[in-house]
Amino acid sequence: SKKARAEGGPAGEAAAAAPAVRLFSRDGEAVAEEVPNAAAWQDGAVLQIGEARYRVERNPPALTELQLPRSLLAGFPVCPKVSAEFAAPQHCLFRWYREQRPAAGGGAAGDGGPAWVEAAAAERVFTPSNALVGLRLKLRCTPGDGAQRYGPPREVESSGPVEAGPGACTFDSRHLYTKKVCGEGSIRAVSYNILADTYAQTEFSRTVLYPYCAPYALELDYRQNLLKKELAGYSADLICLQEVDKSVFVDSLAPALDAFGLEGLFRIKEKQHEGLATFYRRDKFSLLSQHDIAFSEALLSDPLHKELCDKLAEYPLVQEKVLQRSSVLQVSVLQSTTDPSRKICVANTHLYWHPKGGNIRLIQIAVALSHIKHVACDLYPSIPIIFCGDFNSTPSSGTYSFINSGGIAEDHEDWVSNGEEERCNMPLSHSFKLLSACGEPAYTNYVGGFHGCLDYIFIDKNALEVEQVIPLPSHEEVTTHQALPSVSHPSDHIALICDLKWK
């Protein structure tokens, strides 16, 4: 009795005696007490405590995070953020539900809570139809590990209902060319400045830079919906992005593109909250190594750039400006999964933006090309390069001419791009044979006060050739809402897309 037990009498001791505890292996053999824990606790073992029996499972699949995006648009893919232990998203089970519409009488279904109806899709990514506008979604995810082991499921409901999408977007017609992933010997590359939220959501952006853009279309969640649909629809093998907010990479783009077979790498700019992202198709490439640099840091500390650094020291005003910049270069060496002898060096950058900063960009690109040469010629002798980015340089600039021709004269006008007091004359050269794969479009950036070609995909002429360039949206499409960004285009830049093949 409780009383006897509380008084600690002999009856209490007997009643409180611990139940027998025994461990059995998965084939029913009792496990001896001297067996070490690591060997004793095997999957399928059975722990018996008194009469109760418990099946042992080591490191069972478990979800650590399950989130839906805040904004859901009809016709746009909904990609949940899934983090798990001892499980992988591609092995998890997904079930999508939609809210049941209230009955005609207006009363809510059942006990006052929403009633949920299973939606057709059982995939990781769900694209709600127009019929679901006004309804919330629910996702039930069961973590799995590929060995047919499943853990406890979790559910998450959307914070708001599915909203109507914008109708036709600038990228819809481009998707007609990119329905399928291109063949084995080909590489579809995309370069795109996606407009960082840091810059889109300021008062200055809303009133001065993009006054023609509906304020809701500048909001991050809205633009992310468009962007994820746009990027997924290109069926790309390589995607180089600029102006990627760190939170956008972690919470939105990496989980979404992962669901479409792409692995992402991120490099932040030290002083900003945005940076560069490179994605590659997992079943076509594996990552061999990464060689990212910040230009200012590399210039000062890497002996590779000593000669340039010494020359620059003769022009202290320019040197100070170059060293203040936080611009970075992302360099990834990838290897073909089907032909390990095929390796490729993928570089991605975003050069200094100022219209009078031509001299600064020349220094940055010289550092970039020396560093890429070190990777693609010294570390991995003679592997081809693909160099993407927002170079903030039109085809008439010194930077473009230098990349294209292999050299620049010390008397080029860009050395005095910011006036005489910031003149810095030096001849530069590089040994690559590079070609702009998408040519020189009339513009890749189209805003109210400016339009011009600033973005390029440069390729190694000796090793790669252009199979096709995906046409840019028509001028009519770009200017439907005056300029970019707009309700039908998520950035002020336009993505460049081309199919390349090994020579």
Explain what the structure shows:
Strands 16, 17, 18, 19, 20, 23 and 26 form a 7-stranded mixed beta sheet that branches. Strands 14-15-13-12-28-27 form a 6-stranded mixed beta sheet, covered by helices on one side. It is globular. The longest helix has 22 residues, at 358-379. The chain contains 14 helices and 28 strands. 41% of the residues are buried. It has 503 residues and is α+β, with helices and mostly antiparallel strands.
Beta content: 25-35%
Largest β-sheet summary: 7 strands, mixed
Helix content: 10-25%
**Which parts are unreliable, with pLDDT below 50 for 5 consecutive residues or more?**
1-6
Query: What is the molecular shape?
Result: globular
Structural class: alpha+beta
Mean pLDDT reading: 93
Q: Care to count the β-strands?
A: 28
Radius of gyration: 29 Å
- End-to-end C-alpha gap: 88 Å
Subunit organisation of the chains: single chain
Give the helix tally: 14
Overview features:
503 residues, alpha+beta, seven-stranded mixed β-sheet, six-stranded mixed β-sheet, 14 helices, globular, disordered N terminus
List the helices and strands and how they pair.
Elements lengths: L1 H5 L3 H6 L5 E4 L12 H4 L5 E4 L2 E4 L6 E6 L4 E2 L7 E5 L7 E7 L16 E3 L18 E6 L11 E4 L4 E2 L8 H4 L10 E8 L3 H4 L2 H7 L10 H14 L4 E8 H14 L2 E7 L5 E8 L3 E6 L2 E2 H7 L4 H7 L3 H9 L3 E9 L6 E8 L7 H22 L5 E6 L7 H8 L1 E2 L19 E2 L4 E3 L8 E3 L2 E3 L2 E6 L3 E6 L5 H5 L16 E7 L1
Parallel strand pairs: 5-11, 12-13, 19-20
Antiparallel strand pairs: 1-2, 2-3, 4-6, 7-8, 7-9, 9-10, 12-28, 13-15, 14-15, 16-18, 17-18, 18-19, 20-26, 21-22, 23-26, 24-25, 27-28
